[in-house]
Design a protein that fits this description.
By secondary structure, this protein is an alpha/beta fold. The protein is 35% helix and 12% strand. The chain has a six-stranded mixed beta sheet with strand order 12-11-10-9-13-14. Strands 2-1-3-4 form a four-stranded parallel beta sheet, with helices on both faces. The protein has a two-stranded antiparallel ribbon with strand order 5-6. The protein binds FE2/S2 (inorganic) cluster and magnesium ion. It is an enzyme of class 4 (lyase).
Length: 575
């Protein structure tokens, strides 16, 4: 229902002539505001994930002023509320342990404060799903402001891509092909402006998903952080947040089954990060939309990769993608693969938002007739090793490994694996399958990005750059290679990966979507009976609660009690 000045949620705090409201008003005045600032004006929460330990959001410290300018122009009252900044680069053991914490923080910040709508400022991997999950559950009008990708990396005139080139040159260094001096030069050139990773990693994937879901202004997710267009877009986002209050445009009107499907299609055409699977499933489930791995896989079979951005692409980065027309041009070229009638926060449909968009460079944004990869970026495999599914990114792995039978080499922990791969006597060939367990949501804990297991040094020296790897971990969206990830259920809770032994033969068939260990049922039953349940990692604290409530990868790793339909809705605060 459209709002009036009298029915603003914030007016419940500020308008009544009673003792509580006296307190709210006098404390606003303590900050130098007066009734002109808030009376009859939508109060816009700006959830800002800036911090001194978040390089991807460094500009948010000042960019928030541009958002505030927009809010004020449109007659609103901005209130900046800082939230967990979740830097992928620094947070240990993994930001994934804390995505749900940011989601809870966002939901409760919005619920508990005198605000009418939210601008969500995020971009680094987990911040997008964290903020969006929280906003869905809070239910206030919410608009997403993506941080924007950083500029292309540069070393001696060569492009450098976040993550992807770190892995690539690390292998070359291990092979003895790169000097210390060159290595230091790469270190100084790979991240040379604020903004999130500029490969098609999890950040670029998730901001594109936010846009395709209808949660940003048209084109917002492609603008590089350091481009002044990003400043203008930020101000427009602030203005639009105020209008959304009057229209009472809440997330449930945006996050429909059609929007989720659009987001999955766009993610696939972008050559998305494997992490997209977990976050998109989580966001859909929060919104009460039924969306499964099988639906994603089915879409993948008919959706080609069109964005020629590394690591699925061979050369370009997000800055090039923006100059080539950005996500609006990509979506415009998808024709009837998208539901263009889906509503967006902009107050127009997805179709209206991309109207007139053109591809400027068709080597960066390929036409459907000349894709980067003929099928979707992701495939979901099932079998006796992953009854609830696992994920592979066929577009980023060597073709000859897509159908493969090989000997398992199994590691119980990351440190064990790390030590072994450097051992010159490790019994391994390029036809084997490196397997890591105890790396899932509970086992990691937090499902770290360990899934791109390093190729053993002795094989790297032989020139091998890809082989099959398998785990219940995730991998960075900037990673590449034949990595089978998110095995569910995970080994730590007794998924079949717990019973795999070195020497077992694993058969992988990506075109037929299967993954099996060739071990007979009786033998598996014996191993299951002998299995010792691992000790939990945390005896107290957040990690303890995490382990009790986190769902498995195929269900999005949300907390059970945060999911829509878990129980009674949370009441609005009694003012
Ligand atoms: Fe922030 Fe990659 S480290 S997006
Ligand atoms: Mg990442």
């Amino acid at each position: 229902m459209a709002k009036t000045k009298e029915t603003l949620r914030s007016a419940r705090w500020f308008a009544p002539d009673d003792l509580r409201s006296f307190g709210h008003r006098s404390r606003m005045m303590q900050m130098g505001y007066d009734p002109e600032d808030w009376t009859g004006r939508p109060v816009i929460a700006i959830i800002n994930t800036w911090s001194d330990a978040q390089p991807c959001h460094a500009h948010f410290k000042h960019r928030v002023d541009d958002v505030k300018r927009g809010v004020l122009q449109a007659g609103g009252f901005p209130l900046e509320l800082p939230a967990l900044s979740l830097s992928e680069s620094f947070v240990k053991p993994t930001t994934m342990l804390y995505r749900n914490m940011l989601a809870m923080e966002t939901e409760e910040l919005l619920r508990s404060h005198p605000v009418d709508a939210a601008v969500l400022m995020g971009g680094c991997d987990k911040t997008t799903p964290g903020l969006v999950l929280g906003a869905i559950s809070a239910g206030l009008p919410s608009i997403y402001l993506p941080a924007g990708p950083m500029l292309r990396g540069n070393y001696k005139g060569e492009y450098l891509g976040s993550g992807s080139d770190a892995w690539k040159y690390w292998d070359e260094r291990r092979a003895g092909n790169i000097s210390d001096k060159e290595w230091v030069g790469i270190e100084g050139g790979i991240a040379r402006s604020y903004g999130h990773c500029m490969t098609m990693g999890t950040a670029s994937t998730m901001t594109a998903i936010a846009e395709a879901l209808g949660l940003t202004l048209p084109g917002a997710s492609s603008i590089p952080a350091a481009d002044v267009n990003h400043i203008r877009m930020s101000t427009q986002t602030g203005r639009r947040a105020v209008e959304m209050v009057w229209e009472d445009l809440v997330p449930s009107e945006i996050l429909t089954p059609a929007a989720v499907r659009n987001a999955a299609v766009v993610a696939m055409t972008m050559g998305c990060s494997t992490n997209a699977v977990i976050h998109l499933v989580a966001m859909a489930r929060r919104a009460g939309v039924d969306f499964t791995l099988d639906q994603l896989d089915a879409l993948g079979r008919t959706t080609p990769v069109l964005a020629n951005v590394r690591p699925s692409g061979d050369k370009y980065l997000m800055e090039d993608f923006y100059y080539a027309g950005g996500i609006r041009a990509l979506m415009a070229s998808l024709g009837d693969k998208l539901d263009l009638t889906a509503k967006t926060v902009a107050g127009v449909t997805l179709g209206e938002g991309i109207d007139g968009a053109e591809v400027i460079n068709d080597d960066v944004i390929r036409p459907i007739t000349n894709p980067v990869y003929h099928e979707g970026a992701l495939a979901v495999l099932r079998g006796n090793l992953a009854p609830n599914g696992c994920v592979i990114k066929p577009s980023a792995c060597a073709e000859h490994l897509l159908v493969h039978e090989g000997r398992a080499i199994v590691f119980d922990s990351y440190p064990e694996m790390k030590k072994a791969v450097d051992d010159p006597d490790l019994d391994v060939t390029e036809n084997d399958i490196l397997c890591l367990r105890n790396a899932g949501p509970q086992g990691g804990p937090g499902m770290p990005e360990w899934g791109m297991l390093p190729i053993p040094t002795k094989l790297v020296k032989k020139g091998i750059r890809d082989m099959l790897r398998l785990s219940d971990a995730r991998m960075s969206g900037t990673s590449y290679g034949a990595c089978i990830l998110h095995v569910a259920p995970e080994s730590h809770i007794g998924g079949p990966l717990a019973f795999l032994k070195t020497g077992d033969i694993i058969r992988v068939d990506v075109p037929n979507r299967s993954i099996d260990m060739l071990v007979d049922e009786d033998e598996l039953a014996r191993r299951r009976a002998a299995w010792v349940v691992p000790k939990p990692y945390y005896g107290r604290g957040y990690g303890h609660a995490f382990a009790k409530h986190v769902k498995q990868a195929d269900e999005g790793c949300d907390f059970d009690f945060l999911e829509t339909g878990f129980g009674e809705p949370v009441p609005e605060p009694d003012i």
